[in-house]
Design a protein that fits this description.
Layout lengths: L2 E9 L3 E3 H12 L4 H8 L5 E3 L14 H27 L8 E6 L8 H9 L6 E6 L6 H15 L3 E8 L21 H9 L2 E10 L4 E10 L7 E6 L2 E6 L3 H18 L10 E4 L4 H10 L8 H10 L5 H12 L8 E8 L3 E9 L1
Parallel strand pairs: 4-5, 4-6, 11-12
Antiparallel strand pairs: 1-7, 1-8, 2-3, 6-7, 8-13, 9-10, 12-13
Helix pairs in contact: 1-2, 2-6, 3-4, 7-8, 9-10
Length: 355
Amino acid sequence: MTSRVAGAGHAVPAPMGQQALWDGYFRQHYADDRVAKRVWTSSGITTRHGVVDPTREDISGVSTGVRMRRFVEEAVPLGKEAVSSALASAGLDASDVGLFGVVSCTGYATPGLDILLARDLGMTVDVQRLMIGHMGCYAALPGLGAVADYSTARRRPSVLLCLELTSLHVQPPTVSARSGSPAADDLQQMVAHALFSDAAAAVVVEPGGPGLEVVDVIARTDVSTSDHMTWDVTDLGFKMGLSPRVPDVLAVHVRDVVSDLLGRNGCTIGDVDAWAVHPGGPRILDVVEDRLDLAPEAMSASRAVLRDYGNCSSATVLLVIEHLVSSGDVGPWGLLVAMAFGPGLTLYAALLRAT
């Protein structure tokens, strides 16, 4: 007997238009740099969401301590809304939850969100908690594997919440002393500022019953490229390092990883009905589509989430899964492969089956 994703929900802060962010803040932030503008216009994003709208509030010079206090203030109501929605969709009460897993790489506090939200949601005092931090964009899938294993072993429902507030980490521009324009090494920050967004996404996992059966999870880490994606704590928030070579590394590994996952479960790529691929950016989706020989429509859910939400780090792949389920793209006994990528460089994939 395996466990199933029986419910899902999400919550996002106020919307921010991608073009409005450029016109109202980042154009000046990057001195109308043509490279930054090109990065912005090729992002594939129309709308993002943020607890901090930089066109109204510039926090690029604010200390990490201030940002972490803001994280707790903003994260608790968003997390409560997302988990409450997921529980309602599964027909469960917070007191039914045996394990509460919380994923985030964008903020820290002790007592953590797991304790604060368990209290506010009305979970029991003996609920088990699991806090998964600093794994980045792929963290939802090891988190899903962990809570599913718990539900299978303990025969009790579990909840996984991924909550990321990337808007708290706007960085000051690095300016070239010679030209007064953004320095060349600021390109990675331009990309990060053009892509990342805020969201809270939650799933409820139950032993047996209807839903998406969590069949298997696989991981692959290429430590030789560990410097390609970093997330460093600085005095001014967390700073992203994002090499343009990330899609090239992904291209080397993605087909082997997916083939291994499917092969050990008696399936092939042609058997998969739906793909929930973390939309790290347009190039990432292009690489996956190309390397797996998929039709363009296979990435439509991922592209829609990128367009409407941006890259919400760990929460994003759960948003894509929710989109696929709500749109009816996964029929009875249909197979879904979820995939996400992050620091390491690490690729995680999960095989889900509709019951």
